[in-house]
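User: Hey, my collaborator sent me this sequence without any context and asked if I could get a structure. I don't really work with proteins. Can you help?
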Amino acid sequence: MFSEANNIWEWFSGIWFAPATLLSFDYEFPILLYGIPAVPLLFFLRWLLFFRFRQKIEIAFFEGEVKRSWGSLLRFVPDIIQALSLMLILFALARPQRTNEQIEQYTEGIDIMLVLDLSESMRIEDFKPNRLEASKEVARKFIAGRFQDRIGIVVFAGDAFSLSPLTTDYKLLDTYLSEIDFGLISKPGTAIGSALGVATNRMRESKARSKVMILISDGENTAGNIDPITAAELAKAYGIKIYSIAVGKEGAVPVGTDAFGNTVYEENTLDETTLRKIASIGEGQFFRASNNKALDEIFNKINTYEKAEIKETRFKDTRDFYHIYLTWAIVFFLLWLATKNTFMSNALED
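Assistant: No problem. I've predicted the 3D structure and written it out in C-alpha cell form, which is a compact way to encode the shape of the chain:
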C-alpha cells in the first residue's frame, strides 16, 4: 500500500480503491460519506421522472421489425461517469487522511537502593515460605512496577556488599534476586550499619532528582565496623531518604521441623528502636510487617510515595489524501464532458 502519492502516475493506481486502503483512512468530515450512496439513487429518481414526463413521438412499426440492440445501453455511460465524478468529489470533501502518532515517555527518574538482610534469622517461617523469600518476592513486584528508575541491590549478614549497581535493567535485577540465598555471605551476624554505608557509597555520586534507600531487616545490629546511626546520618548528608522495614513477629515463631517432621518454635524478639531511628534520620518512614500481606502493602505504599512523574511528548504527522480522489473526480468529469454530446447520448431513446 502506498503511504503517499509521489507522482502523477501513482495517483491512478487502483490500490487507492481497495477496501483495505479505504478502511485505513481517518476522515475529517465523515458525514459526507453518507452522501455517496445517495448519488446513484438521485440519478435513478431522475431517470424515473424523465421516463414518466418526457415527450414521446408515436411511431408505428410492423411486428418483428423492432429489435433491441445492446448498443443502446451506451446512453447510460455518460450518466454513470457523471455519478462517479460526484461520488469522488464527496469522498474527497470527506478528507481522507492518515495520522502517524508517536508517544515518547520520559521521567527524571529516581535512584533506589534495596538493602536486604540475609542473616540466619531470615530463615524463620512466620512468613511463607520464609522471611527472605517473602522479601525477595515483594522486591520483585516493586521493581516490575517502576519506570525508568535506576535500582540497585545491597545484601548483608555479618558483612555487606553490593550485589547490583544502580541500573534500569530490570530483567538483570530479577535474575540477581533469584540468586540471592543465605550462602552468599558466610559471616554470621547482622551488619546494618555496614549495609547502609555500602548503599550510600553506591549512591553518593548520583545526580537523580530523588535518592531512596529501602532497608529490610529483622534484627538488631550485631556486626560490622560502622554504627547504624552514623551510617544513617552519612546517607542523609548525601540527600538519601531511608525507609526501614522490620519483618517478623514477636514471640514463638516457626524455625523448621525436627526429625519427626514436627514444627519447631523459638522465641523471637525484634529490636525496632534502631530501625525507627534510621528512618527518622533519613527523613523516611518506618514500617512493621508481620506477614506476607502486610509486607506487600508496605511496598505498595513506598511505590506510591516515590512515584516519579511520567511525562509524555506526542508527535502527530497527518497526511491528507483527498487530492488523489479529487484528481480522479476531475478525470471522470472531463470524460463526462467528452461523452455527453456524442453518439452515446441519443436523443431518440426507445
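In plain terms: The chain has a mean pLDDT of 82. You can pass these C-alpha cells on to your collaborator as they are.
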